[in-house]
Amino acid sequence: MTEDRRSRRPGPTVRVKVTEVTPDAERRREDRVATEEPLEIRLTWPGEPARRVWVTMRTPGHDFELSAGYLRHEQVIAPGDLSRVAYCTDEDLSAEEEFNVVTVTLDAPPRRDPGHRHGGSSSGSSACGVCGKDSVGEVLSAVHGRRWGGELPTPDVVRRLPDVLREHQPVFSRTGGVHAAGLFTAAGDLLVVREDVGRHNAVDKVTGARMLAGEDVAEACLVVSGRAGFELVQKAVAAGIGSLVSVGAPTSLSVRLATESGLVLWGFTSPKRVVRYT
What we know:
278 residues; alpha/beta; 6-stranded mixed beta sheet; disordered N terminus
């Protein structure tokens, strides 16, 4: 990779000129916004050419982790299946596609058909992690994962976890425009934090980070900065996580899936209170 190509790699934030208006004044200044660009994930294995399996809007950074974590949560791969994860270098890529296409290479065919939900040409927004599913029944029946058998955080530990997560959100501090997900032990020790404009992407990056580091993706607690939507419960269950902690509300479908899957679900988490739903 040349220095010239590296210089074009998108970062997590972008400078913009804004007009700030208050009741007393109006002024022009520079601000930073979170970067949002598409990421195309391609998959290949021996005897099979690379093909697109998903396109998502994301904040650039930790793209290899996002790709690996997404495929793990979709149960397409398992830890140990990866041969290589790299940016695509096809000569026909446009300048806009450079560093926005990742190819995941497996040593053997995937554990599950990568087109089982989305098809090769589907895409999603940064707001939705389950776009493209054919039916709610299909989604519910397709979520599997080993159940967590270790210790779980106590309510006292749970209440302090969002504040710990907040201390490790540099992109949010600069822009106010991204979500975060963090993996914690039962004692409240932080293992990894990732940020992204898409809350589901942040969770994918957390699992991908563990996979690429050779660490177990299952752990006692996943903490997310927003609400506990269905797609986050889905990914936590697929990874074998013991509990999901959110600062916002859950939904009916997330409570249902957490209950059926044995996932402990916490919502409205703050230093003063937390609500347990399962």
